[in-house]
Amino acid sequence: MAEIIKMPKLSDTMEEGVIAAWHKKVGDKVSTGDVLAEIESDKATLDFESFHNGVLLHIEVDAGKTTPVDVPIAVIGKEGEDYKQQLEEARAGGGESKEAPAPKAEAKEAAPAPAAAPAPAPKPAAPKPAAKPVVVVQKEESASDSDHMKISPLARRLAQEQGVNLRSVRGTGDNGRIVKRDIEKASRKSSGGFAGIERQRNVEISQMRKSIAKHLGASKFSAPHFYLTIDLDMDRAVEARKAINEAIAPEKISFNDMVIKAAAISLLEHPQVNAAWNDPYITYNEHVNIGVAVAVDEGLLVPVVRFADGKPLTTISNEVRDYAKRARNKKLLPQEWEGSTFTISNLGMFGIEEFTAIINAPDSCIMAVGSIRQEPVVKDGQIVVGNRMKVTLSCDHRVVDGATGAQFLATFRKYIENPIVMLGMSEI
């Protein structure tokens, strides 16, 4: 009789698994201990070993597909064996074989027969239930101490090749069976590797994190990203910020506020960058709304500074501080994080000098801003200490070409390196 192979339960919390890859194809011979497939659970991707000998007759679930636990994924049997009826019954039963009766539990509940009653005629032996394939599970159990040690052929072969003493190995397979990863762990330990206690915990994914993952995943894999990086001279920006803050004390502006302002007025000169892919159109925005990435416990929120090109630095500064505070307290309104035409992500305050960011769709670009660092630079033939800052523009190549992005960055450089060009007293 053919054996119906089912999706195993690889962890206590696993409800479904993904076939990451098949190591055997239909028609291949299979022996006990052969790795049939790699299965991705909710915790890890593990080798799935066969507990049967025969031929792989059928693959029910293709690589990359998700299937609930205990649902058929393949069939192993004799070459040419008819398995279709058996597979149909397994499908209909959610993986439970209808061939295997379960009279034992009922027999235990029946009342005992009187002592004088004749013994009942022996019943035909019930078919033996199909043996379950051995799978790697998280629960640890002691290996058998008997001479007939439970070990998969693959694990036994690895132990011989690596000189591992099987008596010192604790199996983590079904009923303490030693499997491949147990040998690998023992080999690392014997070679001087550190062996500690493995711990993990699952945290349920929040709706915010799910939304972020879906949004950024769609952006990264649908928009062809390319990146442009420039290194900026921030000496005049440092001087300008100091002078402005002394003039408007106790209010303060940040370098990020200056970056927002410089980007906003640069976008007016480069409408191709202030655009969005909106198939079958490219939408060119005639207003400038700057999204500002704010880190919160569960990820990132991007509140929007609307019409940033026309706002003074102090207004931009007050809005961004207010948004950041309310974002961390989960008090932002939906309309406050919608409608950006360009996004800025600044990790300079965390000491990050340079990074790339994923485009915040439907925007066509996002600017990643690094920290201001002091380093030796040459000015007028002399080596002096200069203030430098790197920014990287991520562009959607469907909308923005390399030259277009480079021209925008050149304009941005003009304003951020020479703040007096972009700022009059009315702009502060």
In order across it, which strands form the biggest sheet? 9-18-17-16-12-15
Query: What is the highest CATH level, the class of the largest domain?
Result: Alpha Beta
Question: Percent range for helical residues?
Answer: 25-40%
Shape: elongated
**CATH-defined superfamily of the largest domain:** Chloramphenicol acetyltransferase-like domain
Report the portion of residues in β strands: 15-25%
Output the radius of gyration.
Answer: 33 Å
User: Main β-sheet, in a few words?
Assistant: 6 strands, mixed
- Overall structural domain count: 3
Element order: H for helix, E for strand: EEEEEEEEHHHHHEHHEEEEEEHEEEHH
What is the tally of helical segments? 10
Account of the 3D structure:
The structure is a single chain. The protein folds into three domains: 1-98, RNA polymerase II/Efflux pump adaptor protein, barrel-sandwich hybrid domain (OB fold (Dihydrolipoamide Acetyltransferase, E2P)); 139-200, Dihydrolipoamide Transferase (Irregular), CATH 4.10.320.10; 207-427, Chloramphenicol acetyltransferase-like domain (Chloramphenicol Acetyltransferase). The protein contains ten helices and 18 strands. The chain has helices at 84-92, 104-109, 153-162, 180-190, 207-222, 235-248, 255-269, 313-328, 402-417, 419-422; strands spanning 3-6, 16-22, 29-30, 35-40, 45-49, 54-59, 66-68, 72-77, 225-233, 275-278, 281-284, 290-292, 294-296, 299-301, 304-305, 342-346, 365-379, 382-396. The longest helix is centred in the middle third of the chain and has 16 residues, at 207-222.
